Write a sequence for this structure.
């Protein structure tokens, strides 16, 4: 069953729609009131619901029944459907556009997932992806405290070229790429949400909503890393460690593409 079925019960509390990211998704996706949208890998539906409330006719698809039940409890007016990127249970040409937010690293195959999105999207339909890349994650200061956890996370994260090539193979043409640097007021508490506030990671409830800590992390390393992190926060050493990881790649990435080919 889906990985997120096993993530802690506090996920729905810590993973909320961030206003800035929501606005970016809206601008990159929205065209007219009459179009039909798809949120693939919707989780508990925070962004699905927020986009719906802004006027989108949007459907949420996720492999985790537990996540979908939580989404439906929050808004039963939205169609919530169990499925995966590689197996979307809708007819050909069902949607005008799709969003895939922080989900690519859970797909079994990027190419198969994008080909399936090609199938359910109309020609000219757009897809907006929000993700992180291997290259960007190498710049996270979390490496200093949780090297194996980050190595495991990076292992499952696609590289930027992998995303570009998979989209092309699946009949999409990239129209825009836009790096995202974590903002201090970020409300969606995903992996690098504590970039500017290291004490964030000392809160077990926050960690329970992050798959890297919940599913991949070596418990002994996490405990040792948290002890060292708390020590460095108290001494002030954390400031120099964070500064040593500063870079221009961005922490996450928006990729926008349109369907230009109909695949056999």
């Amino acid at each position: 069953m889906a990985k997120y079925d096993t993530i802690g019960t506090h996920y729905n509390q810590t993973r909320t729609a961030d206003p800035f990211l929501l606005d970016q998704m809206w601008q990159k996706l929205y065209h007219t009131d009459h179009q039909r949208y798809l949120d693939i890998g919707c989780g508990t539906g925070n962004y699905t619901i927020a986009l719906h409330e802004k006027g989108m006719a949007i459907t949420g698809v996720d492999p985790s029944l537990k996540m979908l039940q939580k989404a439906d409890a929050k808004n039963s007016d939205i169609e919530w459907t169990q499925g995966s990127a590689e197996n979307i249970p809708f007819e050909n040409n069902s949607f005008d556009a799709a969003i895939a937010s922080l989900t690519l690293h859970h797909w079994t195959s990027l190419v198969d997932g994008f080909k399936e999105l090609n199938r359910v999207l109309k020609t000219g339909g757009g897809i907006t992806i929000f993700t992180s890349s291997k290259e960007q994650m190498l710049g996270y200061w979390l490496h200093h405290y949780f090297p194996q956890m980050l190595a495991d996370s990076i292992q499952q994260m696609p590289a930027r070229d992998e995303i570009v090539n998979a989209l092309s193979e699946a009949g999409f043409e990239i129209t825009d790429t836009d790096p995202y640097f974590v903002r201090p007021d970020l409300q969606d508490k995903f992996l690098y949400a504590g970039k500017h506030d290291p004490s964030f990671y000392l809160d077990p409830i926050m960690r329970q909503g992050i798959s890297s800590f919940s599913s991949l992390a070596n418990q002994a390393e996490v405990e040792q890393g948290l002890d060292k992190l708390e020590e460095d926060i108290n001494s002030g050493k954390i400031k120099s460690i964070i500064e040593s990881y500063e870079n221009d790649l961005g922490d996450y990435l928006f990729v926008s593409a349109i369907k230009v080919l109909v695949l056999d």
Summary: The chain has a mean pLDDT of 92. The CA atoms of residues 4 and 64 lie 6 Å apart. The domain at 3-134+153-188+249-259 is CATH 3.40.50.150 (Rossmann fold).
